[in-house]
Design a protein that fits this description.
Elements: E1 2-8, E2 16-24, E3 28-38, E4 43-44, E5 49-50, H1 57-83, H2 89-98, H3 110-120, H4 127-147, H5 158-170, H6 175-194, H7 220-228, H8 234-249, H9 253-256, E6 264-268, E7 274-281, E8 288-292, H10 295-303, H11 314-327, E9 333-341, E10 348-356, H12 365-374, H13 380-387, H14 392-395, H15 403-414
Antiparallel strand pairs: 1-2, 2-3, 4-5, 6-7, 7-8, 9-10
Helix pairs in contact: 3-4, 3-6, 8-11, 8-12
Length: 416
């Protein structure tokens, strides 16, 4: 068990430094000179404290400083163990130099800690996650300007939450988006607490409302219109082909934009048909996939001499497929959330309203449309296989089958 004692090492002079000693069984026995001084004649070696602290305000202050150091050092020790830090002479000297359980000068304000978190996590999180957290930080900075207050981590309470939600309503952010921001405020607060930073535990009481997304999808008739629309611009034809491929393969943009001709393998089915199966590993889940290519995809590949369309950036893909859908007449006015850029803050936010459907189309629409349309005709376990979900509950019957066999089974089902 860890123990903390105080002592003086000299009885000569008017004032001498008080030393702090940290021991934990036979594992650690460390000592360092503090910045607290005392007249040696006022010190009790037996009590390891001032002999008569009530004698003067100065001695009362010495006792208070010692008690605070004892508390902070114990917190510092537990946090250091959690983080795997070396407990040695340098460790205790660093503590004494700062005198707090936060000897590494970590930020104690909300947006400052967001910035620190982004720095230390840069190699651990994906670029998209880093970008999202950066956007949340910028929103919180603008919120603080609006509120006229710079929030410390100890001030993240229910009043903070109420004001942030009020700001969200005023700036027309969706409830879901503000919920996502609050969720990361909880992540940041927990991380700071593990690092020994004082936080307000009220953040644990935040009930993060999970709003079900009303995703926009394309029905089979709309997909057929898109396929058959005449497009004279090559860049739109290229984007249209990717949209149809994303639907037929049910894959994320990060995966289908990396499809290559070399990923396609031929397999002869037992009925004599030659199948073309796409083999790849999903970027997000690291799951190995095998997907039979249907007639629509093979037609696109044939048009392009066996190659997939040219890769394009996510930004341009989102922009181009909106134009494709507009030209295909996907113009029905529907309710949805449209992403806009605030002209003042330059932050993106979703605004719920009624818009032409093509304006609400995004890069995930192919994958989502696949699930929405195929659930009418395919078992869920087959759909989940195609989308690449990896939990036992989702994969169900395919836990014991290899990827090629799963792809062949789905082909058999679709071609009964």
């Amino acid at each position: 068990m860890a123990t903390i004692n105080f002592l003086i090492q000299s009885t000569k002079g008017d004032l001498v430094p008080i030393y702090i000693r940290f021991r934990n069984g036979r594992q650690y026995d460390l000592k360092a000179k503090t910045k607290i001084f005392i007249d040696p004649s006022e010190w009790s070696a037996k009590k390891q404290a001032p002999l008569k602290p009530q004698k003067s305000d100065e001695l009362v202050s010495v006792v208070q400083q010692m008690n605070q150091l004892r508390t902070n050092l114990m917190d510092y020790f537990h946090n250091s163990i959690k983080q795997g830090l070396s407990i040695d002479g340098e460790w205790i000297r660093r503590f004494v130099e700062k005198g707090t359980s936060n000897p590494y000068d970590l930020p104690i304000d909300l947006t400052g800690y967001f910035e620190y978190y982004l720095i230390i996590k840069v190699s651990e999180i994906k670029k998209t996650t880093h970008k999202k957290i950066t956007t949340f930080k910028r929103l919180l900075e603008n919120f603080e300007k609006w509120a006229g207050k710079h929030y410390l981590l100890t001030e993240i309470n229910h009043d903070f939450r109420s004001k942030l939600e009020e700001y969200g309503v005023k700036m027309e952010y969706s409830i879901r988006y503000i919920s996502d921001v609050l969720n990361y405020v909880k992540v940041i607060s927990r991380h700071a607490e593990r690092n020994g930073i004082a936080v307000n535990r009220q953040f644990e009481g935040f009930k993060i409302e999970r709003i079900k997304n009303d995703y926009i999808t394309l029905n089979p008739m709309e997909l057929e219109k898109i396929e058959n629309t005449e497009l004279t611009a090559d860049y739109l034809d290229n984007a249209r082909d990717w949209l149809l491929i994303s639907y037929e393969t049910a894959q994320r943009v990060s995966d289908f934009q990396n499809f290559k001709k070399s990923m396609i393998k031929e397999f002869k089915h037992k009925n004599g048909n030659v199948l073309f199966i796409l083999l790849f590993t999903q970027i997000k889940t690291k799951k190995e996939m095998a997907i039979t290519l249907d007639t629509r995809v093979l037609k696109i590949l044939e048009k392009r001499n066996g190659d997939f369309p040219r890769s394009i950036s996510d930004v341009n893909y989102n922009k181009y497929i909106k134009k494709v859908c507009q030209k295909a007449g996907i113009t029905e006015i529907i309710e949805g959330a449209k992403t806009i850029v605030d002209p003042i803050t330059k932050l993106k936010r979703k605004v719920i309203g009624f818009y032409p459907k093509f304006e609400l189309v995004t890069s995930h629409i192919g994958r989502r449309s696949y699930v929405s349309n195929k659930r009418l005709t395919m078992p869920d376990n087959m759909i989940r296989y195609y989308t690449g979900h990896t939990s036992d509950r989702m994969l169900g019957d395919y836990d014991h089958k290899n990827n090629i066999q799963a792809a062949l089974d789905i082909y058999d089902f679709l071609n009964k």
